Amino acid sequence: MSGPWTRAINRTAQVLRDNTARIIRMEGVNPDIAPRTLFSFRTAQDIQQYALGSDSDLGGNSTVHLDHHPDGYARFWGDMRLDVKAGLEGKLRPGYAGFRNKSRPTLFGQIYDDLSLHKYLALRVRAAGEPHTRNSYFVNIQTDGPVQTDLWQHRLYFQTDGEWEDVAIPLSDFVMTNQGDLVQNQVKMMREKVRTIGISILGGKSRTQGKYELGIESIRAVNEELELKPTGEHLSEPPEKPLVQ
């Protein structure tokens, strides 16, 4: 039987094992800066770690799915729509869908990811779906900051046409947004306490709609640029809606 308490106990045991291993390795003296896999999408069980959201939660008509593919990756896919249900015209900004990892409670509190010793967030992804939807993906990071609605975001750029690729995004290039607006007074990301990481597709402001699909295999923290260099560009204007919390 697997319930919330069972999962919390299992995560607590994992934290204890990890902390013991760190003590043995003396990471406080010799910090580990090797590449770290933060999230994997290789198994059906991996997919259960993620929560989905879209404008349909508030009255829009976009759809969102995250499925496991037998070849060992996840398919983030759906239909990006810019219309809303009757009676909500002009009251809702439609055109978004996304996913993020679920919160990870233990008996000692939440599990956070410490990215303070890494320079890049690396994603193994493949853009599919209708070609005109491929420029509307964003990577979202939520930290354990004082304002839970703050999100650090960066556009996800692709270097190939529908091929698997490794995209490396400098963590220093993420910008802080809140409720879809770029925050004027930017602050440094609390990299040592990352609560969630996710991906969203935002079609509202660019008036992009259609069938979208993104294959994703893993999300890692790394210190070296990958073979395919990341673009130096990042969020040039605020997205219209952050991923649903």
Brief digest:
The protein is mostly beta strands and 245 residues long. The protein is built from two helices and 15 strands.
Rounded to the nearest angstrom, the radius of gyration is: 18 Å
Number of E strands = 15
Main CATH class of the largest domain: Mainly Beta
Arithmetic mean pLDDT: 84
Structural class: mainly beta
Q: Which runs of at least 5 residues are low in confidence (pLDDT < 50)?
A: 15-27, 227-245
The level of helicity is 10-25%
CATH H-level superfamily of the largest domain: Galactose-binding lectin
Main β-sheet, spatial strand arrangement: 2-5-14-9-10-12-13
Supply the number of structural domains.
Answer: 2
Roughly what fraction of the amino acids lie in strands?
A: 35-45%
Q: What is the end-to-end distance? A: 28 Å
> What's the order of the H and E elements?
HEHEEEEEEEEEEEEEE
Number of helices: 2
Shape-level CATH architecture of the largest domain: Sandwich
Task: List the SSEs and their pairings.
Blueprint: H1 4-25, E1 36-40, H2 44-47, E2 50-54, E3 65-69, E4 73-80, E5 96-101, E6 105-106, E7 109-110, E8 120-129, E9 137-143, E10 150-155, E11 165-170, E12 175-178, E13 181-182, E14 194-202, E15 210-222
Antiparallel strand pairs: 1-15, 2-5, 3-4, 4-15, 5-14, 6-7, 8-11, 8-15, 9-10, 9-14, 10-12, 12-13
Q: Key features?
A:
seven-stranded antiparallel beta sheet, single chain, six-stranded antiparallel beta sheet, globular, 37% strand, 15 strands, Jelly Rolls
How would you describe this protein?
The structure is a single chain. With 245 residues, this protein is mainly beta. The protein folds into 2 domains: 1-30; 33-222, Jelly Rolls. It is 11% helix and 37% strand. It is built from 2 helices and 15 strands. The protein has helices spanning 4-25, 44-47, and strands at 36-40, 50-54, 65-69, 73-80, 96-101, 105-106, 109-110, 120-129, 137-143, 150-155, 165-170, 175-178, 181-182, 194-202, 210-222. A 7-stranded antiparallel sheet has the order 2-5-14-9-10-12-13, with no helix packed on it. Strands 1, 3, 4, 8, 11 and 15 form a 6-stranded antiparallel sheet that branches. A hairpin with a 2-residue loop joins strand 12 and strand 13 (181-182). The longest helix has 22 residues, at 4-25. The radius of gyration is 18 Å and the shape is globular. Belongs to the CIA30 family. One of its GO terms (molecular function) is unfolded protein binding. Keywords: Chaperone, Mitochondrion. Its main location: mitochondrion. This is Complex I intermediate-associated protein 30, mitochondrial.
